[in-house]
Amino acid sequence: MMSTGGLITRADAPPVTTPRDPAQEAAERELSKPMYHENDPGLLDRALRKFTDWIDDLFDAASGATPGGALGLVVIAVLLILAVAALWWRLGSPTRTTSSSHLFDDGGIRSAADHRTAAESHAAAGRWTEAVQERMRAVVRSLEERTLLDPRPGRTADEAAAEAAVSLPAHAADLHAAARTFDDVTYGGRTADADTYTRLRTLDLTLDRTKPLLTGPTT
């Protein structure tokens, strides 16, 4: 204390200071209180926001590197979608397992005439998928009965078409198309229709009247 003209005055006290680290910890404790976070977005909202930000950044980077910018990127995306759709339609469902799909079931050996009768019965009832299956079996069984194919359990439609094409080279493309149709409707989830069955029926009748090339194709 100092005395000035009979008055006693108190010297200014030094300012109170708090070290930096404790002050930061105190501020963090204060800000962590629930009252400051009542309106914060939830975990899902934050995750969605990060994802949309990532998509925006990716789109911006791609559009900057694509001729035509964002419009060019959209055009490319549409073309890719159309290409995938065309492949799906052409090749069928990915569940097709033609490498292990047997043409005939285990219900016993039936003649080509039996399969044709069953096919016509299904066709008359509008069961086109079953009609196509039976007609393809009639085609192969007829070739076996004519000794153009050796009877072999476990043969697939593709194998039958490839073997039959040796003695019927003029119909090789139609045979392979018929085998693919059989696989599509049997293992690929496709649905047959009247036109599909008519084409297969025509092939069956045509092959039945075709003279085979017994010596195989010339080289």
Ordered list of secondary-structure elements with their pairings:
Layout: E1 2-4, E2 7-9, H1 20-31, H2 43-65, H3 69-91, H4 112-124, H5 128-145, H6 157-167, H7 172-187, H8 194-209
Antiparallel strand pairs: 1-2
Helix pairs in contact: 2-3, 4-5, 5-7, 5-8, 6-7
Key structural traits:
219 residues
Task: Write a compact overview of the structure shown.
With 219 residues, the protein is mostly helical.
Number of H- or I-type helical stretches? 8
Specify the helix fraction band: 55-70%
Q: Note the gap between the termini.
A: 125 Å
The count of DSSP E runs of length 2 or more, i.e. the number of strands, is 2
Instruction: Report mean pLDDT, rounded to a whole number.
Output: 77
Secondary-structure element sequence? EEHHHHHHHH
Biggest sheet strand line-up: 1-2
Describe the sheet with the most strands: 2 strands, antiparallel
Low-confidence stretches: 93-100
State the oligomer.
Answer: single chain
Structural class: mainly alpha
Shape: elongated
- The portion of residues forming beta strands comes to under 5%
Radius of gyration: 39 Å
Description:
- The protein is mainly alpha-helical and 219 residues long.
- Helix content is 60%, strand content 3%.
- It contains eight helices and two strands, in the order ββαααααααα.
- Strands 1-2 form a two-stranded antiparallel sheet.
- α5 crosses α7 and α5 packs parallel to α8.
- The protein is elongated.
